[in-house]
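Q: Joint fold for the lines below.
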Amino acid sequence: MADDWQPDFEQLVDEHQSMVFSLAVRMTGDCGLAEEIAQDVFLELDRHLGKIETPLHALLWLRRVAMSRSADAMRKRRVRGIDQWVEIDETHGAILEERPTPLGSRLEGLLATLPEPQRAALVLRYQEELTPEEIAATLGAPLATVKSHLQRGLKLLRAKAAIHLKEYVRGA
Amino acid sequence: MDELECELREALKRQPAPSSLKRKVMNRRSVTQRRHVRMVWFERIAAALILVAVAGAGVLWRHQDEQRRGEEAKQQVFTALRITGHALNHMNQQLAAHRRAAQE
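A: Joint structure:
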């Protein structure tokens, strides 16, 4: 069955645009930049379409390249001296108190303040529901490092949630 | 999985991509493809021009080489004719001297 599969670019865009865009937006925190990254990722897929062998291969390839391009974009932004996360971190508490938003989006906001490797591991773990082994393969990182990022990320997120989110303060 | 992890999983559900994303990707793809086709033609034309130039230079070089060889051969023939003429003159002089000596 897989031998008969021929990649259809338009269909692949339809199927995976949400995944690629969501990864990029959660890694960069910038919808405009995420859309540009998603476009670049799909155009790169178009150039490599001949090498894509199965639908699963396409999914794994897109996930890996989306993470890699998002990291590149953030690195470029850091070189240019724009660090949005610092800005978010400094104003985050005030925004939460002034405008009550659903818990999910506030949690997503807190996630955005985590260091990049921890955020990447958590996004792949909870958005894509990958195992640590799959995350390690996607990021090209050692399994132990990924497990450490997941643990530290969750610990930091829990600490931030206890400070910033009333629900967790009450729960504590 | 604790409460935070459940909330996180809920919060990190995939977001729908902007409706314009697919259109922009397809537009950029067609622009890239057109540019690629233009590049392929440009490369073909450039390769053809280079081939024509190389072939022309080869023909010209061969023509000039033949001319140079012809000129060299011509000079060799003239030299040989001069030498032959010189030898014949010398021989005529000797024959004349010999004939005079015989008559005396």
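Q: Anything notable?
A: Chain B has a mean pLDDT of 94. Residues 20-103 of chain B form the longest helix (84 residues).
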